[in-house]
UniProtKB/TrEMBL annotation:
Signal peptide: none annotated. Residues 1-29, 365-423 are annotated as: Disordered. Residues 75-102, 156-225 form a coiled coil. PANTHER family: DNA ENDONUCLEASE ACTIVATOR CTP1 C-TERMINAL DOMAIN-CONTAINING PROTEIN. It comes from Ophiocordyceps sinensis (strain Co18 / CGMCC 3.14243). Keywords: Coiled coil. Residues 375-398 have a biased composition (Acidic residues). This is Uncharacterized protein. Residues 1-10 have a biased composition (Pro residues).
Amino acid sequence: MDPKTNPPGSPVASGGGPLQTASPDRVNQRCDSVTAALRAESRDNSVHGKISQFNNLSVAMQSKQLERKTADAALKRAMVGREEAEAELRRFKDEMRLLQKATQEGKERERRVGERLETVMENYGRAKETHAHTQALWEKEIRRARKENFTTQSVIVKLQEELKTARNAVKMLEGTVEREKERSRVRENEAFTARYQLVGVQEQLQGALERIKVVEQERDAFRAAAEKEEVARIAAEGRIPLPKAEDPNDEFASPRKKTTIRYQNSADARLSLTTMDLASSASSEMEIEELTTQVLWERQRADRGQEMVDFLQAECQMHCCPCTKAKQLRKGGILPQKRRRRSFECPAAAEAEIEEREARRSLLPAAKPLQIQEPEPEPEPEPEPEPEPESEPEPEPEPEPRPVKSKKDPRRSTIFCPREGIFRTVSEHEAEAMEAARLSPPLMT
């Protein structure tokens, strides 16, 4: 290939120059340099041609110039390649630094991401454990809450049952209270009736006491009349006794005569009397005995009535009256004592029955010596005025059974016998037996 036809900056024109890959920038620079060289060469060629044409230079001079131009082009190419290589080297170094920096940054990011991942995994593990523990606790709490709910529901059911039973009990108690109120009203009416009857009994007792006073006055009058009759009879016989001594231990007083002697004297005196005197003395003695018996009986009845009143008052004060006992017996499920209440509900009928039984007992021979043995010597004519002091202490045997009732045996109780019309002091067993005997007939009927 002819070097003249080739451009001076081409690699073929340079002869044995190095062949290297050219980058786009280098190619652009080469193209610029080639175009500049062609232009310069075109100018130079035109000048040289003109010079050669005008100066007729030789061919040797032209070859040397051609070699010089080729060397200059090769030098320029070498310089351009070096510059391009240095630029590429700088660029590669910059790229390598950038890549190294990016690699370091990537490693740093990877390390940070790894640390963060480890931290996150640790937190995740702890959170998982905490969640499992919390879930177990919540499950326990849920089971406990369910159990408490079940127990609460069972307690609510029990409380509802208890409330229902309590309401039923309240209703029953209200009914019981109403019945007790009715009973209390009935008891109040009975108590009012009993008080009214007690007032009537007290009035009857006052009337009986007044009758007793009247009977005592009549007795005193009969006694005075009997004394006058005895004095008249003794005066008629001619045996007037000495006046009674005030002091029984007086040594100047007349000696007392024995009862047997008086009885004999009285019998002798009666034998000496006429038939009228005997009849009058016998009738007066019988009347005096009857009056004395009636007075004693009325006194006993008055004492019994007063004792009964005191006993009823004490029972009411001590809350042992039949009303209180009836309430207690109702609470215990025992029937009240109806017969005893009936005896107090009709005092007039009871009084009439007592009088009839007393009259029957007064006719019995066994009852007379118990109360009339001591006052028998009173109507005797012989003992001048001696029967009078004997008739005064007649009520002395009455207080004798009183201390026996309460002081000697505190476990005994005094009860009223409606059949006999008297009070009797009996033991607790006897009283219970008598009460059972009283209650048995109405229960069987």
